[in-house]
Design brief:
This protein has about 140 residues and is mainly alpha-helical. The chain has 6 helices and 2 strands. The protein has a two-stranded antiparallel sheet. Helix 3 (about 70-75) packs across helix 5 (about 95-110) and helix 3 crosses helix 6 (about 110-140). The chain starts with 10 loop residues before the first helix and ends with a helix.
Length: about 140
């Protein structure tokens, strides 16, 4: 459901928003909606920021570390009985507060982070298949 809201921007903000919309091809509503959603998430998850990756996708990342999905993937790589924060602190060399921030964000936005992990694994599988196809040419 959409809830219309009237927002007044200062002239400089309005001009910058208009330039950004023209540059990216997004709508003003889309840009504002994304910005507010990310800001609200960062208010709850203070150790998280958002970055734009090469594909243009926005992803959650630790303020002082990697993207959240990498922490989640490391967590899943351990057997359930070894899934403890100190294990990841030792493995990744990140502070406990950072690991906890990533896990808390993942808990609240599970589908988002799980989707990133799935896409990453699919890309790895495709890269391996492409490499194997290329090696097959050498062996022929």
């Amino acid at each position: 459901m959409v809830a219309p809201t009237n927002v007044r921007f200062s002239e400089p903000v309005h001009e910058a928003l208009t330039r950004y919309v023209h540059l990216t091809g997004q709508t003003k509503s889309g840009v504002i909606n994304s910005a507010v959603e990310e800001w609200l998430r960062m208010q709850v998850h203070t150790g998280i920021r958002f970055v734009t990756i090469e594909t243009g996708e926005r992803r959650a990342r630790l303020v002082d570390g990697p993207e959240v999905w990498t922490i989640a993937e490391a967590w899943l790589a351990h057997e359930p009985e070894r899934r403890r924060v100190p294990e990841l602190v030792d493995l990744l060399g990140l502070p406990e507060r950072s690991i906890e921030a990533a896990l808390s964000y993942w808990a609240d936005f599970r589908a988002e982070i799980d989707g990133v992990i799935e896409r990453h694994r699919a890309a790895q599988d495709e890269a391996l298949a492409a490499w194997e196809r290329r090696r097959a040419i050498d062996a022929a």
